Amino acid sequence: MFSLFRKTEPKKPKLVEAIVTAFQKQGDFLVYFNEQAITPYWICYQKNLIDAKKIHEYVLPNINKPTLESIKEIKESVPIEDIILTKDIEEIKTKLLSGYLMVQLHRKDEICALIRAPLDNNRSVSPPEVEFSVVGPKEAFVESLDTNLNLVRKRLPIIDLKVKEVTIGELSKTRISVLYVDGIADKTNVRTVLQRLKDIEFDQLVDSSYVAQIIADNQMSPFPQLLDTERPDRVAAVLSEGKTVVFVDGSPHALIGPTTLVEFFSSFEDYFLNWYVATFLRLLRFFAVIFSILVTPIYVAVLTFHYELVPRELMGNLITSRRVVPLPPILEAIFLELTIELLREAGARLPTKVGQTIGIVGGIVIGTAAVEAGLTSNVLLIIVALSALASFTTPVYNMSNTIRVIRFPFLLFAQLWGLLGVVYAFCLLLTHLLRLTSLGRPFLEPIYPLRIQDLKDAQVRLPFSSLAKRPQFLRSTNPTRFNKKNAQLKKDIDE
User: Are 186 and 476 within 8 A, CB to CB?
Assistant: First the structure.
């Protein structure tokens, strides 16, 4: 074994002395001097960041050779690709905290070797949990940036797939990679993303959601302006369209931009289904979102201001259901909406099996008890339950949270001005969406500005034969996916 700071140890080289001084208060920082080696050497590293197996198998046997005379020969001797020769103290400190070990041979050497041997404690690739699909690939991103890049490159094995890496965070030193396909992606989009990332001044970035909020065009908007995904197949697809993707080390989600509002209601599973079925499901989701936002405010507005709009056959049932309810419609609706939100939040924070039980049993018990206690009507209970169910159809979790929030302002406007208030709230929402952008691109495209070509894969999904062009709003340098005319001229083998 080595001796740790033995009395017979010679004076340390300047670089080792500087590093020992900088890390002297680190209880997990180790410095060894091997005086019995053919060429005595110093080795320094953070023991909880280094894989000891790699040290004993690849590093130590190869630096203890008679032929090793200078520090520069370590690159040829040690079978590890990432070896850096440097004398920059700041770079040495950074690398030692990133899974590198430092080796120095002679006191007179002004440089040292930094050998990468990190301890990998990452989970293996698993099926998607948030964007689960019945058909299609069953792989999801993990917290390792290198693993995530590998999953993407397997699907796009082309030299034009470019990766730009930056390090952000004064404390966290987080690695962030920006991916795009050269020759397809608009250079303006890439420059915008890189510039906004480099302009970030924040001490730590734990997850990609930090980045999504910081580089958003409008940080005060409740709407997400970058699409996050955990599916490698979706990332490969959007890269081929000309979009830009951001990966954050330590996050299992990738950020896609620029994006549009309609993409948040499109599941990637739609492309694995027949286009008739996919179109039906997309239209169903849009209807569910509108229903989830408007149905409860319309109920409050009608019962508060517009009794004449209720059909005579339904009026009797409404009067009967509300006969023993002492609360006005607005308080009744807010009570039920908050109850649903509490059950949803409790189910999400508890362990999976317990959360499912709370959601089912709690909803049944509380709903039944509220009706029997006369705190709410059974009609509104059904409406709120359907509204909550409709909000679950949104494929992207961040957008479903936004829908949950904006229902409450609609309720307030409905109480103040009835159906006119609902219309006014809808106009405010539409105005906000019209002004919203994603990396400088219109958020409501292809609805506004109207682009007929992009409507082929928006609210509906036409067959792949109709998607010969890439989305116009991306301004791709190569807008054509395939030559539609030549594709139609080709015959099947049996024709």
Answer: yes
Q: Write out the two tokens for 166.
A: 């930056």
- Where b means 16+ CB within 10 Å and e means fewer, 437-471 reads bbbebbbbbbbeeebebbebbbeebeeeeebbbbb
Query: CA 487 → CA 407, 466, 492, distances in Å?
Result: 47, 11, 11
Say whether 180 sits in a helix, a strand or coil: strand
CB neighbour class for 338 (10 Å; exposed up to 12, middle 13-18, buried from 19): exposed
Residue type, 104: Q
480's tokens: 């054509």
CB 259 within 8 A of CB 471: no
Backbone angle region of 34, left / alpha / beta, with phi > 0 → left and psi within -120 to 50 → alpha: beta
Per the structure block, which two tokens stand in for 163?
């990766």
- Quote the pLDDT of residue 279: 94
3-state secondary structure of 192: helix
Of 211, 136, 146, whose CA–CA distance to 172 is shortest? 211
Instruction: Give the residue among 219, 395, 385, 231 at the shortest CA–CA distance from 296.
Output: 385
| Sequence-separated (6 or more) residues with CB below 8 Å from residue 110 | 14, 15, 87
pLDDT tens string 385-402 = 899 889 888 889 889 899
Within the chain, which residues score under 50 in pLDDT?
A: 1-7, 494-495
Helix (H, G, I), strand (E, B) or coil at 9: coil
User: What is the residue-averaged pLDDT of the chain?
Assistant: 87
For 457, the token pair is: 């894969």
Where exactly are the structural domains of the chain?
Answer: 14-116, 145-259, 275-442
DSSP E strands in 27-186: the ranges are: 29-34, 41-46, 83-86, 100-104, 112-116, 161-168, 174-181
Q: Is the dihedral of CA 192, 197, 202, 204 positive or negative?
A: positive
Alpha carbons 396 and 267: distance in angstroms, whole number: 8
Alpha-carbon gap, residue 186 to 192, rounded angstroms: 10
Q: What angle do CA 357, 134, 261 make, to 5 degrees?
A: 90
